[in-house]
């Protein structure tokens, strides 16, 4: 927390002026860009994987690398647009806080001393967006992403099929005694009666509410 005195805002605890932080070092910005790009590329792989699974299971379409490449271009464009929107938001914040030298009340309450940080974030967002769009134009990168997404999609589908087969085997392996078979008809009759009773009750409840 700070108080204002001649020469600008000062820290209450020490009375010293609140100094403007120096620019973020270039190596830190580069490291943030590398991390952001790594996360964005992984997100692209997962998004493409999900599209491939939907295409295979819901739409019953065979895997096609050209179609997958086009789908990746769409995914990369969507992710790049998100980063560009983040960069625009950072620019808006910079304009808002440049003339506000106060002290932040919480972590998202930016002030003029945060301008350098916001400038660095804007640079990271913009560069990640640029590289994502560039990735979509590089055949080698596109092929690598498509193959990783295809592999992940196949692994996920295979696990699901295996799990269902295992469930089927467990059911088929059950040993049913004579009592089970004899009582099954009665159990099914009771179950049907219960379902019909609950259905009738469900229909009566709205009628009771309307009659009130």
Give an overview of the whole structure.
With 212 residues, the chain is mainly alpha-helical. The protein has two domains: 167 residues, no CATH class; 35 residues. Helices cover 73% and strands 4% of the residues. The protein is built from five helices and two strands, in the order ββααααα. A two-stranded antiparallel ribbon has the order 1-2. The longest helix has 34 residues. It is elongated and about 90 Å long.
Sum up the structure in keywords.
212 residues; mainly alpha; two-stranded antiparallel ribbon; disordered C terminus
Topology:
Blueprint: E1 2-5, E2 8-11, H1 26-57, H2 65-97, H3 115-135, H4 139-172, H5 178-211
Antiparallel strand pairs: 1-2
Helix pairs in contact: 1-2, 1-3, 1-4, 2-3, 2-4
| General form | elongated
Mean pLDDT metric: 79
The biggest sheet amounts to: 2 strands, antiparallel
Question: What is the string of helix and strand elements?
Answer: EEHHHHH
Number of strands: 2
Spatial strand order of the main sheet: 1-2
Number of helices: 5
Strand residue content: under 5%
Cα gyration radius (Å): 30 Å
Would you identify the regions where 5 or more consecutive residues have pLDDT less than 50? 1-5, 206-211
Please give the domain count. Answer: 2
The residue fraction in helices comes out at over 70%
Structural class: mainly alpha
Distance between the termini: 60 Å
